[in-house]
Amino acid sequence: MSQNPTKSETAWFLAALGILILTSFFLGLGSAPLFDVDEGAFSEATREMMISKNYLTTYLNGAPRFDKPILIYWIQLLCVKLFGVNEFAFRLPSALAGTAWATSIFLFVRKESGNPQAFFAAAMMVLALQIIVIAKAAIADGLLNCFLALTMFSLLTHFKTGSKHSLYIAFAAAGFGMLTKGPIAILIPAAVSFLFALQEGTLKKWIRMIFNPIGILLFLFIALPWYLLEYRDQGWAFIEGFFFKHNLSRFNTSFEGHSGSVLYYIPVIIVGMMPFTGLFFTVLFNIKTLLSDRTNRFLLIWFVFVFIFFSLSGTKLPHYTIYGYTPLFILMARALPLSRHPERFALWPLLLLALVTSLPYLLVIALQKIDDDFIKAILQGGIELTGENHIIIILGTMLCIAVIQFIPRFSSAGKLISTGVVFSLLINIYLMPLAGNLLQKPVKEAALLTKKEGYKTVMWEVYNPSFFVYSESLTEIRAPKRGEVVLTTVKELKNLQNTTLLYSKYGIVLAKLKQ
Description:
By secondary structure, the protein is mainly α. It has four domains: 3-244, no CATH class; 253-339, no CATH class; 342-439, no CATH class; 445-513, no CATH class. 69% of the residues lie in helices and 5% in strands. It contains 25 helices and seven strands. It has helices spanning 3-26, 38-52, 71-83, 87-113, 115-127, 129-134, 141-161, 164-181, 184-200, 203-210, 213-234, 236-252, 265-272, 277-285, 287-290, 294-312, 325-335, 347-357, 359-369, 373-385, 388-404, 412-439, 441-453, 466-471, 490-493, and strands at 59-60, 63-64, 457-459, 476-477, 485-489, 499-505, 508-513. α5 (115-127) crosses α17, α7 runs antiparallel to α8 and α16 (294-312) packs across α17.
């Protein structure tokens, strides 16, 4: 009898978590066009895989793409075959991975601290700004974070219980992570577990764990075949392109211009954790108290290693810090009782939304100071898409968040989760479609016109892989010749003579050069 209420309670919490996941990850999943560069590149590589039926090597615009391993493409391909070539299908793997990721957080914390704290930790993960974006993006990071969470939770369980079953799950999850994004799936678990063992004085146990022969064989059985087959197919080009260029070079140098100072990830976390940023600072202010718990020490080492490692990396991208978000959400849930002023947590999302409210005015100011014609066209488009309705929507959202804070029956956790739901609805229903209409809809419409009219188009001074997806064609990237159709920007159009404008919107143009 004593177990039935617990099972029933767990079922209710999981059902509530499922509703949050539907609201955050699946609502509007296919509403916005694919965003360039990453979503367009992943989706096009999958489309070309479907056309070529080459399920070993990925190609982008006809050239080998060694950026990431194969697993995400296989899963995207399955979804495309089930649901067609569309945004929903390309993004579905990330939403499903996000669902598994959130569930793994719930199940792990439930064993440690019970259902309420487990639900709160998972709910924050589901409703945080950066996770909403990453779990709806047609890229590999949602899937990697799912496998990374499974690996780390299993390693900690093995440390605490000595469970061989947990250790084998860790090796298997790391193998799938290696198939998803490469060596980072090994580096983070190995480094964090080493540092944890070092501070516990159990390095011998760590060595036995890392070099467990059955675990290694399981990892190799999952990850090694594709790497061997890809090397056999592509030779040294694969080693150089994948391991040296897209892994080592990202740490040693600023890759593709994505650089930043060592403080780069501080504002990223502050914004990315919205609307739960206040709890992040609660963790920082109570580190000494939190460190008294063994699980907390593991979680803190996990977060701090990721933060420092990528802060020192030459290449910096906002989603890299998400690899350390899983432990942060759990720590934030554990730190809530330590907060002295939980009523102030709502100030963070309200401040961000106040800034978003002023967007139409900020765009007007920026328009007056920018000389670049392409940027000016985007800013003008932003002004057209926002305005009074934008201000009303954001102010209405702020009012909802403010009202939530005065509902007496809501606990601090309940107020935070309710604020997260409102925040998520704003992003999924309004802000993400707005960004898509401004930044990507012109590319999509130009591509669909190209497909309809059968144009042989070249791409010049822009790089929008989503154009390949929507036009369902390969496109040469070079200067146009007489008689050709070119996709470019209003800035570059001035450098072309004798053109006929076929399409123009928010700085993206499709033009034909006269013979």
